[in-house]
Every structure is written in structure tokens, then in C-alpha cells.
Design a protein that fits this description.
The complex is a heterodimer of chains A (about 300) and B (about 180). In chain A, about 65% of the residues lie in helices and about 5% in strands. With about 300 residues, chain A is an alpha+beta fold. Chain A has one domain (about 1-300). In chain A, helix 1 runs antiparallel to helix 7 (about 195-240) and helix 7 (about 195-240) packs across helix 8. Chain A is elongated. Chain B has one domain (about 40-175). Helix content of chain B is about 80%, strand content about 0%. Chain B has helices at about 1-60, 65-80, 85-105, 110-115, 115-150, 155-160, 175. The chains are: A alpha+beta (about 300), B mainly alpha (about 180).
Chain lengths: ~300, ~180
């Protein structure tokens, strides 16, 4: 079955991309640290501190990234007694997907949305909003959960989680550095004259990098999201053997009068099944949209 | 000397290929067995839910004794089937059909349908029915993977050597596919 081959390839691609993400993060943090080092008088010290912090943070991101994302989003763990319908849905689809059932979390929000996170299928969780649970019928909820389950099985969640918690911090560091530039810092009086010109170039590159870093980070997230979403839609439909379920759910999500999920932010937006922000029609918005056009997703599903 | 080395390398590659093939077929075989056992777990779970269900509807559906005893009979048949595959399959199909009838008939009792306990059990049973269906789906998917693995070229030659035979996928019974006709006594 073509989808099985796709899943296998996806898994491998995602694992490689996760590594690349981590390496890119380390390089970026190291570069920013080195430039910052210029201001405290030692490039190497800045670099070393940055790398140590980077590696430690990277480990934290890998092992606790899901907990960070869940608490940032206001997701609460729930028991089978409180939400039997959700549990049955997740457990059933986990059987079909041949993975252990992910833990269930709920966000108390009227917006219709859901996401999955974790570092692998053995350490995964699926979150849905109360709005989604109230509005979707059985088949529609299965469609959404199957989509999230596919993200879990594909190891999309690992890459998406790392993108959220690594990119978020890079943006913070860049912001911090920009502020340091603006509010003035002095080159060390120990600097030798022949290093002056090189230092100037480094400063300029540093400024450029500090401004560009958030954009690089965002674009990086984008290339991750769109194709993955289509694939998760397709694999989810394969799990349920019922594409109209998810198609119908997406129709309802599309009609959501207030899609704003209160606790979503730019770092976590790409994790959700549908954009958690109010829709704006502008080129910039579409460039930075974290999800493919919902109408196209619906028509692809209906064509299956 | 040169020829011997070449033959040695080719032999080593073939042996490596055979080891990898054999191991992956064994793994798939075990996954298939596991998936088959999974189906049983869900069927047993459904059977376990039935006594509670009967208890909760008994009071309301006093005049539907036929439907209730049908469900109980199917359950007993399932539990008594032991390891007999055919009997188990027949009994579990009977359970599906009789439960369908029971829930169809319950439509006529709005008080029952509003009962908390009944609603919980209904959710449990629906969830379990879905799990039965998904575990059968998984079984079929794995059987297909297994069959593909042993039937493609060049694996098919070696499959015969290792005595790997194609497996049968699970077919939904004709009974299960039929829409249940509700009888009102």
C-alpha cells in the first residue's frame, strides 16, 4: 500500500529533519553567542556559553518539549471517566494505527481545534478543545483524531515539537540581542587595531542575523508544515477508511466564528490542526500561514 | 584466489539478505498473531459488558424478552466456544446482530435512552464495537503486509524454503453486513 511506504519514508525524513533542526539551532545559537561575545570582550567565551546553554536546552526541549507546549497551551490532562467518548476514539484509532494510545488532554476553549505533541509514539499526547468535542459528531471527531494520530505515527510530532521549543528560544535570544544593540554596548578596550575591521564586519553580520533569525525560523517552520498537513489528512483518512469524516470536520472548523485559541502563540501555531488565529487575507499572512488552505484540504479529501 | 573471493562475497551478501528477510518475516508473523489476539480481547470485552447492559434495560423493556434473551444466548455461545475459531466467529456475529436489535428496539423507550447508566453503557459498547472493527482492520493490514513480503520477487523463492504461507484476511460476515430488520411485537 502506497501509504505504508509513505509513512516509512516520512518517519525517516522526520527523524533526519529533527536532527537537522537541532544542528541548525546549535549553529544559530553559537553564532549569536559569538557575536554577543564581541560585546563582553571574548568571542570564545560567548560561543562557549552559548553552546553549553544550547545543548542543555536542546536536551530539555527533546525530553520535556511536550510538557512545555501542553502547559503553554493551557491543556489539562483528563481521565477516561471525564471524557469516555474522547478516550474511546483515541484508543480505537491507536489500535488501527498499531501504536500505543496517546494520552488525552483537553483545552477549555470554544474554538474548534486540536493538536498532537511528544517525541515519539511511546511518549505522545493528543489535545482537543472543548469546542471541538461539543460541535463534532462521532465520525468527524474520528477524522480529526486520526489526523493527529498520523502526526504521531509519522514522527511529525517530534519535529514539530522541536521546531516550537527551539525556534521560540532563538526568537527570544534574537530579540534580546537586538535590544542590547539598541541600548548600547561597548567594544572592549583590549581589542587590537588589526581586528577592528573584522570586528566591524562581524557586528554588521551580527545585526543582520539578529534581525533575520526570526524570519529564518518562521520560514523553516513553514516548509515543515504544509506538506505534512496534507499527508496527515491522507493518512488519517486511511486510518478511518472514511475521508468524509475529516472533510466534514474541516467544514465545521472553517465555519468557526472565532477560531482564536486563547493560549496559542506564534511558536505553537503550527502544531494545531487549523490556524488558531483570526483569518486575515493578505499576502504576508498567506506567506506566513502555518497551514495549507482549508478549502484545498477539503477538496482533496472529497476526491479520495 | 580472486574468483574464490568474489564467490565468497556473493555468498555472504546472499546469506545476509536471507537473514534480514527471515527476521522481518518472523517479526511480521508475530505482529499478525498479536493483532489476531487483539480482536479476541475486544470481543471478550464486549461480552463482558452485556450482563450490565441487560440489567440496565430489563426494567424498562419488560415486554422485549425475546431481544434480551437473544443477546444473552449469543454471549453464552461466545464464551462456550473456547478455542473453536468457527464457533467463536459465529457467536460474535450473533452478538453483533442481537445487540443491534436491542439498541434499535430501545429507540421506543425514551426514558431508557435518557438513563445515565444506559447512556454510559451505550457509549462503552459503541466504543468497543469500533475497537473490534479497528482491530480487524489492523489485522487485515498486517496480513497484507505479510503476504506482500513473502510473495514479491525474490522473496517468494525463499519463503517456500522457510515454509511461510500466505495468510487469510478477515472477512466481515454476510450476516454482519445485512441491515437489521427491527420487529415490533
Amino acid at each position: 500500500m502506497a501509504a505504508h511506504i509513505n509513512i516509512f519514508e516520512s518517519v525517516r525524513a522526520n527523524k533526519i529533519k529533527s536532527w537537522l533542526l537541532f544542528i541548525f539551532f546549535i549553529i544559530l545559537v553559537g553564532a549569536l553567542g559569538a557575536f554577543f561575545g564581541l560585546f563582553i570582550g571574548s568571542v570564545y567565551l560567548g560561543l562557549a556559553i552559548a553552546l553549553i546553554i544550547g545543548v542543555i536546552y536542546g536536551l530539555i526541549a527533546y525530553y520535556s518539549g511536550d510538557r512545555m507546549i501542553l502547559s503553554m497551551s493551557g491543556a489539562k490532562p483528563v481521565t477516561k471517566k471525564e471524557y469516555p467518548h474522547l478516550y474511546h476514539t483515541v484508543e480505537g484509532l491507536a489500535i488501527a494505527a498499531n501504536i500505543p494510545p496517546p494520552k488525552c488532554y483537553v483545552i477549555d476553549d470554544s474554538a474548534l481545534n486540536a493538536f498532537a505533541t511528544g517525541r515519539d509514539p511511546q511518549h505522545a499526547s493528543i489535545t482537543v478543545t472543548t469546542g471541538l468535542l461539543n460541535v463534532l459528531n462521532r465520525q468527524e471527531l474520528e477524522g480529526v483524531v486520526a489526523h493527529e494520530m498520523s502526526h504521531v505515527k509519522n514522527f511529525d510530532i517530534r519535529m514539530m515539537m522541536l521546531a516550537a521549543v527551539l525556534v521560540g528560544i532563538v526568537t527570544l535570544i534574537s530579540d534580546f540581542m537586538l535590544r542590547s544593540f539598541i541600548f548600547g554596548s561597548h567594544r572592549s578596550s583590549d581589542d587590537r587595531k588589526d581586528a577592528g575591521q573584522l570586528g566591524l564586519i562581524l557586528i554588521v553580520v551580527g545585526i543582520v542575523l539578529a534581525i533575520l533569525a526570526p524570519f529564518i525560523a518562521q520560514l523553516m517552520k513553514l516548509t515543515i508544515s504544509r506538506k505534512r498537513e496534507f499527508l496527515a489528512d491522507a493518512n488519517g483518512a486511511l486510518l478511518t477508511r472514511y475521508p468524509p469524516g475529516l472533510a466534514s470536520a474541516l467544514e465545521k472548523i472553517k465555519k468557526d466564528p472565532d477560531p482564536l485559541v486563547d493560549n496559542a502563540n506564534k511558536a505553537t501555531a503550527h502544531l494545531f490542526i487549523s490556524t488558531p488565529f483570526r483569518k486575515t487575507k493578505s499576502f504576508v499572512a498567506s506567506m506566513f500561514a502555518t497551514h495549507p488552505d482549508i478549502d484545498e484540504r477539503i477538496s482533496r479529501l472529497k476526491a479520495m | 584466489m580472486g574468483l574464490g573471493l568474489v564467490i565468497g562475497i556473493i555468498a555472504a551478501v546472499i546469506i545476509l539478505f536471507l537473514i534480514l528477510l527471515y527476521n522481518s518475516v518472523i517479526r511480521l508473523n508475530n505482529q499478525v498473531k498479536n493483532a489476531w489476539a487483539q480482536i479476541d480481547v475486544q470481543l471478550k470485552r464486549r461480552a463482558d459488558l452485556i450482563p450490565n447492559l441487560i440489567e440496565s434495560v430489563k426494567g424498562y423493556m419488560k415486554h422485549e424478552k425475546g431481544v434480551l434473551t437473544d443477546v444473552t444466548k449469543a454471549r453464552t455461545a461466545f464464551l462456550n466456544a473456547g478455542d473453536n475459531m468457527k464457533k467463536k466467529a459465529e457467536a460474535s456475529n450473533m452478538m453483533t446482530d442481537t445487540l443491534k436489535s436491542l439498541f434499535a428496539v430501545s429507540e421506543n423507550y425514551p426514558q431508557l435512552r435518557a438513563n445515565e447508566n444506559f447512556m454510559q453503557l451505550q457509549e462503552e459498547l459503541t466504543g468497543t464495537e469500533n475497537k473490534i472493527s479497528y482491530s480487524r482492520q489492523l489485522y487485515n493490514d498486517l496480513v497484507m503486509e505479510f503476504n506482500n513480503k513473502i510473495q514479491v520477487f525474490p522473496n517468494n523463492f525463499f519463503a517456500k524454503m522457510f515454509n511461510f504461507a500466505a495468510k487469510e484476511s478477515f472477512e466481515a460476515s454476510a450476516e454482519e453486513k445485512k441491515v437489521v430488520k427491527v420487529k415490533f411485537d
